[in-house]
Automatic annotation (TrEMBL):
Transmembrane segments: none
Any matching Pfam family: DUF362
Name of the protein in its database record: DUF362 domain-containing protein
InterPro entries the UniProt entry points to: 4Fe4S_Fe-S-bd, DUF362, PSI_iron-sulfur_center
Residue ranges of domain 4Fe-4S ferredoxin-type in the record: 181-206, 210-239
Length: 349
């Protein structure tokens, strides 16, 4: 059975937000998914400071205002990153979000001050059986995903599945997806301040010869020490095979919306070659396509991918990242029951 994907073509879309409302009410039937006074997380990437390709705040404001007018309680949300930057702790993350214009509606960083606030979910899928979801996303009544569809250096493209899987995971979950190894200390960079030792929740970091050392038999891989270290002396092996990472990401995506009503919107515009996590962005790799809506994230990402390739005349994601098979995430997501690759494209005018 195919899923419906609703498409606003950038070539004909005049910016009439009434069309958004018609899709959400008449096609998606959002009133049948959410209940009055439900607290709805609007999951979005706020863009790293300096990046310009992220979804513009005017869109986020409209969706939050729509939800509020319908009697729901929306909040904008994301989780902290593993890497050092403006989104690795909630103080900097909020500062970054406000700087980039997301200041009209409540913003909550879902996994706490340093990524330590999560809910552990146990469910055995093909690869993983434990999942660590940002607590405030887990405890929300429903989710609306606003996703910038673009290229990605590890997954080929990043769409709703990535926004769900990587975006809803706390730091500990991100570490599981990005690496098969626990963190290690670069003894050449370590200054012996032992700030990491004081913050380690499981006492896996020891003073060995005046420098920090992580006991891999105790470490749970939460990633907190990566944020704590002021000298970038703690590292993980990022060179995980793309296919494994994509499958883990799809499994996290499934758990993030398990038994939770959700709606998905892809902004296939400003199609940058890499993630919005960078403090800059290069020229788009394809022309703007439009905005797509669905209640099936797999069908939505497949339709977005197909439209980009059709409009471009080739696969720009493969051209940009030739070593990555970006369709693995879609195939695995369908296999585990997240959605279907079969879709009917309904153009809205």
């Amino acid at each position: 059975m195919c899923s419906k994907v609703y498409f606003l073509d950038i070539q004909t879309f005049s910016g009439n937000f009434k069309l958004f409302e018609n899709i959400l009410l008449k096609e998606i039937k959002i009133d049948e998914k959410f209940n009055k006074n439900d607290i709805i997380g609007v999951k979005i990437h706020f863009g790293e400071k300096g990046n310009r390709a992220y979804i513009k705040p005017v869109y986020a404001n409209w969706f939050c205002d729509f939800l509020k007018r319908k009697g729901y309680k929306p909040f904008l949300t994301d989780t902290n990153t593993l890497y050092k930057g403006m989104r690795s702790n909630s103080v900097d993350h909020l500062d970054n979000a406000f700087f980039n214009g997301f200041s009209y509606f409540p913003v909550i960083i879902a996994d706490g001050l340093r990524g330590e606030s999560y809910v552990k979910v146990e469910k055995e899928l093909d690869i993983l059986k434990e999942f660590y979801i940002g607590a405030d996303i887990f405890y929300s009544d429903g989710l609306l995903f606003l996703t910038h569809f673009k290229g990605h250096e590890l997954t080929g493209f990043g769409g709703s599945i990535k926004n769900m899987g990587m975006g809803c995971a706390a730091k500990r979950g991100k570490l599981v997806m990005h690496s098969n190894l626990t963190p290690s200390v670069d003894r050449d960079k370590c200054k012996g301040c032992f700030k990491c030792l004081k913050w380690c929740n499981v006492n896996s970091i020891k003073n060995v010869g005046g420098l920090a050392e992580i006991d891999k038999n105790i470490c749970v891989g939460c990633g907190l020490c990566l944020e704590i270290c002021d000298y970038k002396a703690i590292n993980i092996d990022w060179q995980i095979e793309s296919s494994i990472m994509q499958k883990k990401m799809a499994e996290y995506a499934k758990i993030s919306v398990e038994k939770k009503p959700s709606v998905f919107v892809n902004f296939v515009m400003d199609i940058s070659p890499v993630c919005d996590c960078y403090p800059y962005n290069k020229n788009p790799i394809a022309k703007d396509v439009g905005i797509l809506f669905s209640d099936d994230p797999v069908a939505l990402d497949r339709a977005s991918f197909n439209l980009v390739c059709e409009r471009t005349g080739y696969d720009p994601f493969k051209k940009t990242h030739p070593s990555v098979d970006s369709l693995i995430q879609l195939e695995h997501a369908e296999k585990i029951g997240l959605g279907t690759n079969e879709y009917e494209l309904v153009q809205i005018t």
